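Progress against Task 2.4 (sequence-to-structure conversion) is shown through the following example record, which the project officer requested during the mid-term review.
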Amino acid sequence: MNYRTYLEGGPEVSELGFGAWQLGVESGWKAVSEAEADRMIRTALDHGINFFDTAPTYGNGTSEARLGKVLGGLDRSRIVINTKFGRLDTGEVDFSAGRIRESVERSLKRLQVEYLDSVIIHSPPSELLDGNQNDHYGILDRLIEEGKIRAYGASVDLASEITTLLTTSNARVFQAFFNILHQDCKGAFEAVENRGATVIAKIPFDSGWLTGKYSSTSTFEGVRARWSAEDIRVRARLVDRIKEIVGDHPSLTAAALSFCTSFDAVSTVIPGAVSTEQLLANLEAMQYPLNAGVRVELESFYEKEVRAMKLPW
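Structure tokens generated for the chain above:
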């Protein structure tokens, strides 16, 4: 496992992180059993993963609680935990500044830790990202002073959102929607590095498309039913182009992950895994760095063929 700087003065983090949404019971996704959750967390630790991303809303707090059962008894200086605020353990969506402290305290209790490495605002409306116009960041600054959190930021989709936070607050952690088909956030990576901030790359497989398991004839249920027939045809065509570009790289999955980690601003990438077997497959895929020339081709492909499409999530 390779490790990278996350926050100055703190432990380095594994390039492959553990996204813990799937640990949440009644999360709206296929949740794993208690036994499988324990197995997945311990397998991740055994293979060198030390970054864990969770949120109160994942299973109304059960994702955090399941992580806490395992991580709470470990050497805290070697584990890095990121959680969120705004989509609460009660099922509410409430970004009010007055709810931040309560949410953080409840997360600390469920995770069985004395401090959180980072807390990010969970996909907030854009008007909340201006630190000059909102009280949230002063409260988060005080939580840092009190030693309850080490850093804060937000989960974002666009470079402009990162730039707003960087220039109006002390935000240092950005969970960015970033993959081969969604590269807009890359436009703020230089500013992130200059600030000594960090990027957590989320949705690296573009909701499954960049694993190669979908095609133009695929059908979807649940949250993925958001894609129209035309969306599916377009995505399938673009994935075929990506396969041509990556050529004989060991797998599309490996290319998707290594594309994200080929950028210095990215500290860790958090693909989804709903089983220990999928987690192990992601670990295997991390063993194949992307050729620098291929990365350049993928960047050019995005700029020339994808950006203007404004692909829907």
